[in-house]
Amino acid sequence: MTGYRQVLAVPGMAPLLSVSLLARTAITADVMALTMYVVLGLDLSYAAAGGVAATLTAGVALGGPLLGRMVDRRGPRAVLLVTTVAQVVFWLGVPVLPYAVLLGAAFAAGLLMVPAQAITRQAITAMTTAGQRRAAFALESVQGELSYVVGPAVVILCASTTSPGVVAWGVGAAIVAGGAGIALLNPPVRAEGEADVGAAGPAPRREWLGAGMIAVLVMAFGTTTLLSGVDLAIVAALEEAGQVSWAAAVVAVFGLASVAGGLVYGVLPRPAPTWLLLGLLGLVTIPAGLATDWSLLCLAVVGAGLLAAPTLSSVADAVSRLAPAAVRGEATGMQSSAQSAGFALGSPIVGVAVDLSVPAGGFAAAGLAGIAAALTGCLLVRRSPARTRSPHGEFDRAGTPQPREVSAGTPQAAEVSAGPGA
Fold this sequence. Notes:
InterPro entries: MFS (IPR011701), MFS_trans_sf (IPR036259). It comes from Micromonospora globbae. Keywords: Membrane, Transmembrane, Transmembrane helix. Residues 386-422 are annotated as: Disordered. The chain crosses the membrane at residues 46-66, 214-238, 244-268, 275-308, 360-381. By secondary structure, the chain is mostly helical. The chain folds into two domains: 13-191, MFS general substrate transporter like domains (Growth Hormone, Chain: A); 204-403, Up-down Bundle (Growth Hormone, Chain: A), CATH 1.20.1250. The protein contains 16 helices and two strands. The protein has helices at residues 2-9, 13-41, 46-74, 76-93, 99-111, 116-127, 130-159, 164-185, 205-208, 211-240, 247-265, 274-285, 294-300, 302-322, 328-356, 359-383; strands at 388-389, 395-396. It has a two-stranded antiparallel sheet. A hairpin with a 5-residue loop joins β1 (388-389) and β2 (395-396). α2 (13-41) packs antiparallel against α8, α11 packs across α14 and α15 runs antiparallel to α16. It starts with a helix and ends in a 26-residue tail after the last strand.
């Protein structure tokens, strides 16, 4: 755990991760809060609630790169203040908006969602050394898993005891508090020596949005498609077994296994290629469909859980190494958009598989989606240049972070091989 102590000892890192956890937990819960409001507050169908959730998610996916570019040009504080004010307006209005207006407002709120996750990732890249970065991104991925486990559960619990409009206000208040807190901290998004890197303007996309970066974005999409699909597959399998009330317990086991896997991955002596982690995640997901009751399903999802956070961590690390400092915000925004798109599409893909076959088919569809993304990423990486120079002066292959400390003034002639197919 020495690596984690070193990361948390970095000035400003512990407060940033704490405030970011608050913001990300609330943002993770926003879809559930809107669903509860539409179903319980407006007395409409779940399909109507799904429409609001879809427009919010679409806004988040489209807004990620745009907000990232604004961060590159204006800095994090300006973007955080604008998005925080937008969230104040939206969430205050939720309990009084008619459904038709709520649809449009949700899309606008998604476009201007507080970019807590993206800014945290940029700050991690700027605040840590190459040797600390894998442990730092492991903590960030664990933070995401914790927010996923806690946020929606708290919303469901509160919605059963109080007004759904009040719950929506509470979620909005937490998002605003998190955004304001990160703005107050104003974390750096460029390391020392990178402060003036954007003075000549951002690097053209053709210089950094090559096969390596596209491979990582495809794997980011595939990872969240799989994870979103697994959630629905769990519910479908337990509904067939007449044990749907145990779905929350299985999802909790899945999340806790992911937390454990992320913490272990962050202290391993050598990282693994992103495509390999994602491929293994897909492979171990498929057999979970063979479980016949909730207790066996708890055991079956542990393997996938142990690989979930490490895969997400590896994706974030790869993006940070492939993106030049001047466009790191835009690249991180693209990563967030790819993951949002995966979360949005995972459930429908698995839902179709379940409808056309059996609940076990849902796990198969989710796993195969992950495997397909891993194979695509692997093929794209093989097409990319043999060495890609990272913005920190190391050489590595896309999708296989190779931490290496470089002393000041040392000629960077040695190249680090990432191994075949990395």
